[in-house]
Amino acid sequence: MISPARSTVSPARATASPARLALIVGALGVVFGDIGTSPIYTLQTVFNPGDPHPVALTVDNLYGVVSLIVWSIVLIVTVTYVLLAMRMDNHGEGGIMALLTLLRRWAPRGRARTVAFLSGLAVLGAALFLGDSMITPAISVLSAVEGLKVINPGLAEWVVPLTAVILFILFLVQRFGSAAVGRLFGPVMVVWFVVVAVCGISGIMGDPGILLALLPTYAIGFLVGHFQIAFFALAAVVLAVTGAEALYADMGHFGRRPISVAWLFLVFPACALSYLGQGALLLQNRANLSAPFFLLAPAWAQFPLVILATAATVIASQAVISGAFSVAAQASGLGYLPRLRVAHTSSSTHGQIYVPWMNWLLMVSVITLVFAFRSSASLAFAYGMAVTGTITITTILFFYLARQRWSTPGWVLWGGATVLVTVDLLFVAVNLTKFTHGAWLPLAIGLAAFTVMTTWQRGRELITDRRTRAEGSLTEFVRGLRSDPDLVYRVPGTAVFLNPGSETTPLALRANVEHNHVRHDRIIILTVTVDTVPRVDDSARVQVVDLGDPADGIVHVTTRFGYTETPDVPRALRLLEPEPPEGALDVDGASYFLSKIELREGPERGMAHWRKRLFLAAAHITSDASNYFGLPRDRVIVMGSQIEL
C-alpha cells in the first residue's frame, strides 16, 4: 500500500499546473497567431511569378527554399528570440523598449556616444514595430479570406469588404483584454496548429524525399551555389519569421516559460511540417503553386480550412496588436510618447493592458491599408522591411547588453553576434531591393513614428527647462511664506499640488499664494515618478521629505510607479504614516491642484519650427491628468499658465 506522504506531486505544483497550462493556451491565442499563419502565404510568395525578382520553381530551388525557410526560423525565432533575447527581460517585461531601459541602467560610464547611438536604434526599432503592427493584420486576414477564391472564384469581390468587417470587429473586442481574448482564441489556435501539422504530414507522405530539406547543407548550398537566386528568395522567406518580434514584445502578458514551451513543442513543429508538406506537394505538381497551403487538404476539407485559417489570421493580428499596446505604454512611461490612457485588463498579470488611443489608430491604419492594397500579394512586398529592421536592432542590443552583464566568454558572444547579425543584415539588404515595390511603406511609417517619439522626448526636455525657470525655487518660496506669514490667509484642510520635482514651486501653489493670498494648513507637494522597472513594491512607493520647520505644514512626497502600472495617487498617499512629522493629513478629504500649462510656439531656439508644431499637435492626445493619476474629479482644481516652446 502507498502512503499519502510519498506523493510525488506537491499541492502547490498540482495547483500551478492548470494555471501554467492556461497561460500556454492563452499564449497560443495571443502570441503565435502571426508567425503561426505564415505558412498560408510564404512559400507561394517565394515563387510568385509577379514578383519583381521571380524565383523559378525547379527541384533544386524548391529544396533550397524550404531548407532556407526552416533554418531561418531556427536561427531567428528559436535561437535569437526564444533561447537568447527572452532571457534578457526587465522584471518580466520584454520587447525592444525593455532593452532600452536595461541599456540606460547597465551602460558603463564614459560611453555616452555609444549609449546615445544604441538608444536611437532602440527607438527606431520600436517605431518599426509599430509600422509592422499596422501591416500584419491587413496581410494576415487578407491572405486567409482570399482562400474563398480557391473554392469559388466568383467570391473574389467579397474579399476586401469581408476583411475590413472582420478587422473592425477584432479592434472592437480589444477593450476586453488579452486574457479574455486569449481564452477565446487559445483553443482555436490549438486546433489550428494540429490541423496545420496533419496537413503537412499528409503532403510529406506524398514525397518523403522533401525531408532532406531539413539538412542545413541544402540551405547553405543554395545560398553559396545560387546566391543571386537565393538572395532575392530571402525577401519572401522573411515572411516565415514575421511575428518573431511579437514573442518578445508580448512576454509581459504571459511570461517566458509558457511562450517557450508553446513554441518548441507545438508551433515550430507544426510550421516546419507545413512548409515541408507544401514543398512535397509542389514536387508532385507545379500547378499547386496557386494555393499550396489550402491544396494540402482534401477537397471536402478546403472550405472548413478557409474558415479556420480566417479565424487563425484574425488571431495573428492579435499578436502584434498586443505587442503594440506594450510598446506604446512603455514608450509613454519612458517619455517618448505623450501620457496615454492605459487600462490594465488583468488583476493577476500586470502586462495585460489596453491602450485605447493606439487601438483606434491601428484600426484606421489597418483598414486603410486593406482598401489601398486590396491583396496579400501586393502587401507582401511591403511586409518584410519593418520586421527585419526590428529583428536586427534587437539582436544588436541584446549582444551589447549580454557583453555588459553576462560572464560568457567574449569570443562566444562575438561569434554568435557575427552569425546572427549577418543573417539579419542579409534579410534587411534584400528587402531594400523591394523599396519601390512597397518596402517604402513600413519604412515611412517607422520613420514617422521615430520622428514623433524623438520630437516628444526633445520637446519635453525643453518644456521642463522652461517650466523650471517659471516655477522658481521651492526652498525660497517656503522661506518667504515663513518670513511673512501675515500676507497669506491659512485655511483648514489638506491640499495636494502635483509637481514634476522637488526643487521648484508648483505653478498652481505660486498662483494661489500670489493672487488669492491663501494656503492650506497641510500642503503636500507631490512628485510622481515612473521608474524603468515594470512595478514598484508598496514598501518603496512613497518617500516623504521635510521642507523645513514642521509648523509650516508643508512636505514634499515622491511616489514611485513602474512603467506598466496605472498611477493611483490617492492610494499611494494612504501609504503615508498616519501621523507624519507635520501632523495628520486628511488624504480622503484633500483637494488636488493641477498646474495646467498652455503651450505655445515661441521664438526661442532648441527645435526647428516644424518640430515645435509636431510637438504641440502631439500634446493634444495627452490623457487627462485627473484620470491618469486616479484623482477624485470632484476635488480637483486646475490653474492655468502659459509656456512658450
TrEMBL record:
Chain ranges of the K+ potassium transporter integral membrane domain: 24-478
GO cellular component term of the entry, any: plasma membrane
Membrane protein topology class: Multi-pass membrane protein
Gene Ontology molecular-function annotations: potassium ion transmembrane transporter activity; symporter activity
Catalytic activity: K(+)(in) + H(+)(in) = K(+)(out) + H(+)(out)
Domain of life: Bacteria
Occurrences of domain K+ potassium transporter C-terminal (ranges): 492-645
Localization annotation: Cell membrane; Membrane
Primary role: Transport of potassium into the cell. Likely operates as a K(+):H(+) symporter.
Family, as annotated: Belongs to the HAK/KUP transporter (TC 2.A.72) family.
Protein's recorded name: Probable potassium transport system protein Kup
Organism field: Leifsonia shinshuensis
